[in-house]
Write a structure and sequence with these properties.
Strand content: 25-35%
Largest sheet: 13 strands, antiparallel
Helix content: 10-25%
CATH topology: Porin
Structural class: alpha+beta
Distance between the termini: 36 Å
CATH class: Mainly Beta
Order of helices and strands: EHHEEHEEEEHHHEEHHEEEE
Number of domains: 1
């Protein structure tokens, strides 16, 4: 389960089980932490521990729980390795079952559900402490041609005219900025946020929350590895989408001059890949949340290239809860 705090910018082996019981020594640099990675190749590294069984480490998100996007990305990587060459991911559907501990590895068990002429289906179960913590179903296909139809890309300013949202904090010596620049996110994510009050944005529909973010990998990725690009996009898609569901709480709860403490935890994550793309080139992530109710928020997103090609879509539901501030006496 991916937990995040919207107060920060942009966010937020079964059988023996012995591998799960070994905690990472404090002296080691965690593979999923800044000192142990240089980009997505390191974040998505998996060790094969049996036939169609892989082990990986995921870094922490908010509240010291594993970042959900990292789990989904690694699970897709495991499914892709079991799908074989010549097949590209076109969809995934996943559910977060239990919170995960970043101090322990995750084991991904892959089931080969179908190997068809054009399509391949794999199911992945992630296990920690001998319990199922996450499930994913992914479909792969042989690339093929066909007519293309799509809508029009939202009209927003391009990434070249938008500032790095963290550069100003770094120059001003903000205490938080040092942590950010050393963080895993900064080593993987290059983002540009479109201001909500930017003149020329599409007219908003009442009751619908929206945000637009240009994002790409902070480092160049190999061009001949579509699975790596798909997994990287999965990771990036979970950085900001769930926060869209809580924008109404941040706005309505600021009457005392301070934003509310809103926490979010992803319940599921589904994604479709429509056309080829590169994650190390800017993609517009157009996000909208049409409804929030019963302590849950629903969000949709689309990824567009700079020249207006719709390459992927994503849907997510998240738990939302507001933590009240303690008033000073």
């Amino acid at each position: 389960m991916n937990a995040s705090n919207t107060g920060r910018p942009g966010a937020d082996q079964p059988g023996t089980g012995r591998a799960q019981d070994v905690r990472r020594p404090d002296s080691e640099v965690p593979p999923g932490e800044p000192g142990g990675i240089a980009g997505f190749v390191d974040l998505l590294r998996l060790d094969e521990v049996g036939t169609d069984r892989f082990q990986g480490w995921c870094h922490a998100g908010a509240h010291r729980r594993v970042f959900g996007g990292h789990v989904v990305a690694q699970a897709l990587a495991a499914a892709g390795r079991a799908a074989g060459a010549g097949r590209v991911a076109h969809s995934l559907h996943s559910n977060f079952v239990r919170p995960c501990d970043p101090r322990l590895p995750l084991v991904y068990e892959v089931e080969r559900l179908r190997d068809g002429h054009s399509y391949t289906t794999r199911r992945v179960t992630a296990i920690q402490r001998e319990e199922v913590v996450f499930t994913l179903s992914a479909s792969f296909k042989q690339p093929g041609g066909g007519p293309v139809r799509q809508g029009e890309m939202p009209r927003v300013p391009g990434p070249g005219v938008l500032p790095d949202p963290y550069a100003a904090n770094t120059r001003s010596g903000d205490a938080d900025s040092d942590d950010y620049w050393r963080s895993t996110v900064r080593l993987t994510f290059d983002g540009r946020y479109v201001p909500h009050d930017w003149e020329g944005l599409p007219e908003r529909t009442a009751g619908v929350e929206e945000q637009f973010v240009w994002m790409k990998s902070a480092t160049e990725l190999p061009a001949d590895d579509p699975l790596l690009h798909a997994c990287a996009l999965v990771y990036l898609s979970d950085l900001t989408l769930s926060s869209t569901t809580a924008q109404h709480l941040r706005a309505s709860g600021a009457q005392d001059g301070e934003p509310p403490l809103v926490s979010i935890a992803s319940l599921d994550h589904a994604m479709w890949f429509h056309q080829p793309f590169r994650v190390d080139e800017y993609l517009l992530f157009a996000q909208r949340s049409p409804v929030a109710a019963d302590g849950r928020g629903f969000a949709q997103g689309e990824f567009w290239t700079e020249d207006g090609v719709l390459v992927a879509s994503v849907v997510q539901e998240a738990l939302i809860w507001e933590r009240r501030r303690l008033r000073k006496s």
